[in-house]
Amino acid sequence: MFDLQGFGHLLLKGTVVTIELALASLVIGLIFGLLGATAKLSKVWIFRKLATIYTSTMRGIPELLLVLFLYYGGSIILMSVMSRFGYNEYIDINPFIAGVAALSLAFGAYATEVFRMAIQEIPDGQWEAAQAVGMRPMQIYFRIIIPQVWRLALPGLGNLFLVLLKDTALVSVIGLHDIMYQATRGRQATQEPFTFYMAAAVLYLGLTVIVTGVMMWLEWRANPAERYSKRLKNQMNKGVNPPTSKV
Question: Among 50, 53, 106, 177, which residue carries the largest CB count within 10 Å?
């Protein structure tokens, strides 16, 4: 049983918090990434400049520092703003919200480059063909470009999500009850750091294995040509003639 002197259930609860934090940061980070990539490829120079500042800043600041800045600095900024309206009480930012904001901004900065390169991989002829049949730019982007971008960007996004999953451990420093926070509590109560940090490592490793399997399945589903090629190869290895088209 996963008891660990009474702290096993707390580690499992921390695992749920870690998963929620990672998934929330992933969804918001993907939105930031798409917006950033669109801005970087825009013909409007101010959009390109803002996207460049965003990616350069977020990739240059350590995620831990970003978490601390949004958690503590965010409270100071909010209290400064609210004091102008006569509200002088202390404003405490929720650790989960601060963690999601920090990890989403960091993930989005890296995802911006992944999406940008994926969009640039799509031949210009597809834009021209869509314009030739009368499609508007927004229709081309969402109906022609974006569906193909996901297939090209999946490997890179999968690697980024694995990094994001491990970076969730940083949020424990501001009091979020994730895996690392609960492992630290168990270590302090029992004075057995190896046991609890090893248990945390096993939980993170298990999550990583699951995410890797899901990403491999998504990549397989996103590439029908590869699935057909493998099916055809298996049929040929078994001596089955491949299907031929009738003229």
Answer: 106
